[in-house]
Automatic annotation (TrEMBL):
CDD domains: Esterase_713_like-3. The keyword Signal applies. This is AB hydrolase-1 domain-containing protein. It comes from the Bacteria. Residues 1-21 form the signal peptide. PANTHER family: HYDROLASE ALPHA/BETA FOLD FAMILY (PTHR43194), PEROXISOMAL MEMBRANE PROTEIN LPX1 (PTHR43194:SF2).
Length: 361
């Protein structure tokens, strides 16, 4: 009887482990690593003298004849043992880094692991002058500004220090602590063209892949399509700016509390490149349809309105853009970071289903 009880407990343990799903299984990686992509080299005039200039002195050191490598992007990649054909390239949003995609603030698996388990090679990047790509070739004064509550509102988590009701974010104080500690500043002036060049170089290096953007990288993603033919699809989470329209066909600017959202114009020949690939856009919850007093919500009302105009323009030109507002399909409570919210497995499955539907898997 004692042996039977131990065996039964062991069987229940195995069943329980399997019932928890993929997280109980190891992720097997065939190849992984990091590299820099893009960037340039700054050089000082003169000739380097290893005797006169070879001693490090941070307060008084000649840079004569020396160089500085910088303004590159940093890429972390992982290739599973049985990879799918098209990799996923993940690009973070404003004030963020590749950590957006790695692990959720409350410690669960992020999109990096979720899609590795589904067999996709993944490439995570830190754009130039951010995070692991912090070596800027242009100076910038960094400020230690107390802005946590500002971003708490802009990222639509709540007002001040109070969460919205039914929020898909952990109420554990440590989760919020971890979330705020993901922010990282630009170490040089923000340069959209520099970022686009680096990411287009990445696609030219690795070949055909799907681009996954978040927030500020959304508009930069449209611009990257104009620079490389290797982007075969885009998944955009809450793009907020730099929507591209044909010359002479941009909609009127959209005013909101705290600012104005303007569209960008490009030649029709360039705009047509956006019609050649499937694109899906996802927006979360707490975005009003009409003007409100809360600036944290207002800018997303403007972004969603512009996204609707952009979707219509691309589709009317022969494109394939799907715009999904999660509450409209019954998925409620998502913040500006649906890829790391409590229901990120459900959000990932939506993305996977779209990739499969478009033959991008």
């Amino acid at each position: 009887m004692k042996t039977y009880a131990i065996s039964l407990l062991f069987l229940l343990f195995l069943i329980s482990g399997r019932a928890q799903g993929d997280k109980t299984e190891p992720i097997t990686i065939k190849n992984q690593g990091t590299f820099a992509i893009g960037g340039s080299i700054k050089k000082s005039e003169g000739t380097f003298d290893p005797i006169a200039h070879g001693v490090f002195n941070p307060t008084n050191q000649s840079t004569q004849g020396q160089t500085l490598h910088g303004d590159h992007a940093t890429v972390l990649y992982q290739i599973p043992t049985e990879p799918r054909n098209l990799p996923l390239v993940f690009w973070h949003g404003y004030g963020q880094s590749m950590r957006t995609w790695q692990t959720t603030p409350d410690g669960r698996e992020g999109f990096q692991s979720i899609f590795l388990r589904k067999g996709f090679p993944v490439y995570l990047l830190d754009q130039p002058r951010r995070g692991l790509s912090g070596q800027s070739l242009e100076p910038k004064m960094l400020e230690a500004r107390t802005e946590d509550q500002l971003w708490f509102g802009i990222f639509r988590m709540g007002k001040g220090t109070n969460f919205y009701s039914n929020i898909q974010f952990s109420k554990d104080p440590e989760a919020l602590n971890q979330f705020f500690r993901r922010s990282t500043p630009d170490t040089g002036p923000l340069d959209i063209n520099l970022n686009i060049d680096a990411v287009s170089n990445l696609f030219n290096k690795i070949g055909d892949a799907v681009l996954v953007t978040h927030s500020h990288s959304g508009g930069q993603g449209w611009g990257t399509v104009l620079k490389t033919d290797h982007i075969k699809g885009i998944v955009a989470y809450e793009p907020g700016s730099n929507f591209i329209f044909p010359e002479g066909k941009a909609p009127e600017e959209i005013s909101y509390v705290g600012g104005i959202l303007k569209a960008r114009e490009v030649p029709m020949e360039d705009f047509q490149k956006l019609t050649k690939i499937p694109i899906v856009i996802y927006y979360g919850d707490y975005i009003p349809e009409k003007k409100v007093e809360n600036p944290g919500q207002e800018q997303w009302r403007a972004a969603l309105l512009m996204a609707r105009k952009w979707t219509k323009a691309v589709n009317e030109a022969g494109g394939d853009v799907t715009l999904v507002v999660l509450p409209e399909i019954g998925i409620k409570g998502n913040t500006h970071f649906p890829m790391s919210d409590l229901n990120n497995q459900e959000i990932a499955q939506l993305m996977y289903n779209w990739l499969e539907e478009k033959g991008l898997n």
